[in-house]
Amino acid sequence: MENQRTPPPKELTTPDAVPEPKRTSLVGYRPGDLRLGKTDVLWDLGDIPCVSLECFKLAALPPLCEHIDIAKIKDSLQANPKGWIQDAERWAAFKNESTVSCISQEKDFEPFSNIFNAVVREASKATNTPAKLTFASRPAASPISERFNAILPHAYLLLVDKKSIDAEVNKEDHAQNSNPDSWDDIVVSFELEKGNGDAERKDNDKQVVWSLYHIMRNDPCRRATFGVPIENTKLRFWFTCRAVTLVSKTFDFFSEPEHLIYFFCSLAFASDHELGWDPTIRRVCVGDKTQYDITVTTDEGKVLVYETTRVISNFGADALIGRGTRIFEVYLKSHDGKPVKDAEPAVLKDWWRDSDRDCEDRILEQIFADLRNHKGIEQADEARKYFLTVLAAGNVMVDGKIDGTDSLLRMFNLPTDCTWYPLPADELQQPIPTRTGVGRVPSFPWVVISAKRSQVDHRTHCRLVFKEVGYPIYEFRRLDTMFETLQDAHKALQLLHSVGWVHRDVSPGNILRVGKLGKLADLEYAKRLDSHVHEVRTGTLGFMACEVVAQDYLFHELASVIFNDDDQSNEDIEINERLEVNKDPEIPFKFNPLHDMESIWWIQVWILYYHVDRQGGQPSSEQTKCFHKLFPAWLDPPIEALLGYMKIHALPTSFQRVAPSVASMHVELRKAYFVSEKSLPPAYTDALADLHTVFTEHLALAVELSRGVSLFGPSAKCSQYEDTSSEIRDRKLPKV
Question: Structure pTM?
Fold first, then answer.
């Protein structure tokens, strides 16, 4: 969503985009309600670029194999009475003018199967090769999937040479499922409605989009996929990758059969990577479980293969358009395909970055270079301990080229005559503002949702391997461990700020602990303060600075605010009457270091107000009330909470010892905002230096005051306390 202010003069920088959360990244999406899940996916996509059939063929479909002539195939099929009824001008596979058989969905697709087979037989005469795909219709049972999916596609094209494997989880699914096919082998999903009205179209589109979505979120080996909804004799083509979802104009495949012939021919003889598979990820079976061999080609040209042992995080793949981030714990393999002897576990991150954005390893090196220039070599080397160590990094290489959505789409951009295809948004519901109250850490990034754009924002596929297997701060069950880790994260932030950098996404998921040291991770969105590119970024749900949520300076010309303490009235502070938001279009909003500092404070507040101090305990009603005030509805900047005061007495008794230190940081943070925003743009340099000093002192005090204090989620049923010797719980999965 674009910022609605008047564009600033050219010499001024452009403001950050107004943040909108992808609903598939909200905590409320995660319980798995299929109906709500479909709604969330449709909401995130918004209106879809609708392009001509010729444009779709050029951009989304693989190029035709040499010697395939669509006109000749059409003429040959129409000359054969078994393929085409001349008088009726329709496919002979259909017994009447409609696709409706009134028998079963499986029977409905027999004509399509016959047409596909007839087309590829003719095309094979030209290519002298068999088709790589086969047509199947088994609508009574869902294909096998590692991740549950109740959608039953009516039909599909799938690989003859299968990518799926018979891991134990799939064997169990086979035993309970009459469908022998796997989602891992499906190239195109088909849906059929026997009418051609608006209701049928909407239902078909929802089903097709969900199939596209399931393939992209479920299969790490997939870069793109296709779909075809059919209403009677009309159909259209769908395509999706990590940069865009496209739909073609609808056409009648009786009166314009050449388009369907082209579709079948382009896909049936294409290579696997042209069909959307990633040849650098290979699914393997290890100990009756599905794992992946992942190739990393470094920027220096070195080729390394890592075998996964488990998924650390894959919620980034839940958004159909976006980074598609997946993180694995891996071991390096030798050239003979065996694990390297005595190899230590590492972490592999696979994602699709904005094509004009630097990769995270280069951002880190830029930061260290600035530290060397400003602080000296010794301090720069010392700073490395607060960040992850990159072992290997590079763009993914496919077919000898850097893998990106531009190559998938053959450098396609939206044509000037592009229209917008509305998804069935009339049934969309407002998302439930489910945050941490359901027992999940609100660590999902806010991103700019799909909007009507004049161009495709292409992405580049890349991989990073980190040396350290870190554990996120929210995995710990000792309060002093959390504050110790926050201490180190604050030191990392202080180093960034000292050389003119901001992180822009400080959250519990990005603060890790390795051994006894905290590290600040995920610097993909870090940038220099004097940089004027990539202003479109906000932060992480629940931990964003209020000004970042509001996209405005909230403390400028703020009337005198009463800083209440815990001994004063519990009545709410009426902030809105005294808050005059900056409305000057000449002063665009910019992220600054105070916003990073506020995120550190919000993490501490979440730790104290979400958790309880005994196993199986529940928060008091007052603590719960405070929690929801501090973390309000999903789109509201919690400015009243920031300008109010901390109700320390609502916390568990053992937490009350450390809460005054957090409250002191709170007060100094607000003062820093007030001082900085006496004029605009904010002059925060002196206030920031003072604030870092306060945070350093009070985080150290918080560590001492929280010694021996355990903490649990309100519904936690842990069987043991955290091992004080190892500092972490072995049963927890690491995350970066």
Answer: 0.86
